[in-house]
Amino acid sequence: MKFEQKLQSGLLIKRYKRFLADIDLVDVSADVAAPAKELTIHCPNTGAMTGCNVPGSRVWFSASDNPKRKYPNTWELLETPEGDWACINTALANTLVEEAITNGVIAELKGYESLAREVRYGEEKSRIDILLSDNPEDPRACYIEVKSVTLLTGNHLGMFPDAVSTRGQKHLRELMTMVELGHRAVLLFCVNHTGIERVRPADHIDPEYGQLLRQAAESGVEILAYGADISSTEIQLVREIPVELDDPVRLS
Fold this sequence. Notes:
Blueprint: E1 8-16, E2 20-24, E3 38-42, E4 58-63, E5 73-79, E6 85-87, H1 93-102, E7 114-121, E8 126-133, E9 142-149, E10 151-152, E11 157-160, H2 166-180, E12 184-191, E13 198-201, H3 207-219, E14 222-230, E15 235-240
Parallel strand pairs: 9-12, 11-13, 12-14
Antiparallel strand pairs: 1-2, 1-4, 2-3, 4-5, 5-6, 7-8, 8-9, 10-11, 14-15
Helix pairs in contact: 2-3
């Protein structure tokens, strides 16, 4: 996925009230320091963003010409102090997965002729992120729930979720029900942090989610993870990443 416009950048001052961030537009590439100019932008991420909200990190943002928007700029990407890239805009995850499916990047999801998004399903009134159907080799519909992963806890280990997620728990229950009804169900971690090389549930943050994820895997829900290459111009899912579902680990 290429960004439709050239992203602008600045340095993060702080993220607050979940949906707002202040940035410093000082030109960090200039030889002579210029006076700082602060800008408040929209943060399209409801999570804790642990490790992705460090003051001084490079922020990349897009601009909208919609006159009705109070904050016309949207935080898209982050360069961490360690040199990794992370996608902050969680709304992009479904688009990245759809593109990867269409381009045949996700081998486990090849062969389907029809793809739909945001389809109502389940007993808990959910919407599935992606629904695949019409596979000549598999008559089952394939329900895909996408989760964006940016929480890096060290040693290239990514975890999900970064905050207690009752919504995520609901989605796992819905996927298990789809398997019981004879369909195919997939939980796909869209790993939007270039420093992450493996993924596991964040039991120390949401133990209920971790328990449900393991239960879902045992019941037949397929658990996949794919990682992205990220730059200021483009994001693409390019590689499968291992998912670890062994016993919960304790983090000091």
